[in-house]
C-alpha cells in the first residue's frame, strides 16, 4: 500500500463514501484535493469534476448537485472559505447535505499558503449569516482524514445538514502508510451501502419558507451532538495532573509527550464537547491549550470550565518538539 497524504486520504474517503461530484477553485494547500479528484475521474467515468470560476460558485455548484440527489463536496482554504460563507448559510436553510473541506493555512487574506494555521476555528462556527448550528470535524492524522471524511458524508445525508471538515497545511501534506485502508475494512464495507443517495431529490426541499426559521434543525443538531458523534481522542498519562488540549496537527505533535501528560484532542470541534471536556478536566491542576492562532478554541474552553487556562500560541513555521515542550513546561 502506498503512502497517502492527508489530502489524498480525504479524496479516498469521499470516493469510498459514494460521492460523485466535486466542484472547486484551486487554492494552496487544498489544491491537491482537487488534483487527486481529477486523477480519479480519469480512472472512473462515474466521477465528475467542475472547476468553478471562484469559490462562491463552487459551493453553489455542490448545493445544486445535492438538490438533484448527487452527493458532492468542495475543498478550499482561508480566503476561499470566507467566500463560501453565504453558501453555507443557504445550505443550512435548505437542509442541503454538502461537505466543505477547509485546509487552514497562515493568514489572513492571501497569507502564507505553504504554512499551516488554525485561523478558521471560530469562523467555521460564526462565519456565516443566520441563526445556525454548524457541525465541524477536525481530524488529527491521515488515517482520521479518511475516516472522518466518510463520517462527514454519513452525518450530512442522514440529518440533512452541511458538514465542515477542517484540516491544516501540515496535515494536508503529511504522509502515512495507507495499510489501514484494508486493515480496518473501510475499503470493503462502504458506510452508505444501505443508503440511496438518489432517494433525495428536489422534492425534499420544497416549502422553503417553512425552513427560514431553523429552530427545528438547530434542535436536531443539539440532540445528535449530545447523544451521538462525540468524537475525540484521549491519549497519554491519565494520572498526570496536567491536561494538554490541541487540535489537528498540533494534537498529533502533542502525542510525543504522552508519557508525561494526558492529551485531549477534540475531533468534533462544533458543537463543543461540553460534557466530555468537563469530565476529563475535572481533576487536573493544569490545563494547557496549544493552538496555531490567538486562542480561538481557548476561549470556549475557559468559558466552559470557568477557570483560567494556560495557553501556548504556536506560530513557528515547523513544529519543533523541543521548543514546544519547553513552552508547555514553563
Q: What is the CATH-assigned architecture of the largest domain?
A: 3-Layer(aba) Sandwich
User: Per CATH, what is the topology of the largest domain?
Assistant: Rossmann fold
CATH H level, superfamily name of the largest domain: Thiamin diphosphate (ThDP)-binding fold, Pyr/PP domains
What spatial form do the alpha-carbon principal axes imply? globular
Uncertain spans: 185-195, 201-212
| Domain module tally | 2
Return the CATH class of the largest domain: Alpha Beta
Quote the distance from N terminus to C terminus.
42 Å
Mean pLDDT: 88
Q: Which structural category fits the helices and strands?
A: alpha/beta
Helical residues, percent: 25-40%
Keywords, please?
globular, 14 helices, single chain, alpha/beta, eight-stranded mixed β-sheet, Rossmann fold, 330 residues, five-stranded mixed β-sheet
Topology:
Elements: E1 3-5, H1 6-16, E2 21-24, H2 31-43, E3 48-51, H3 55-67, E4 72-76, H4 78-83, H5 85-94, E5 99-106, E6 112-116, H6 123-126, E7 135-137, H7 142-159, E8 163-168, H8 169-173, E9 175-177, H9 180-183, H10 215-227, E10 232-236, E11 242-246, H11 248-254, E12 262-266, E13 268-270, H12 274-281, E14 286-291, H13 296-305, E15 310-313, H14 321-329
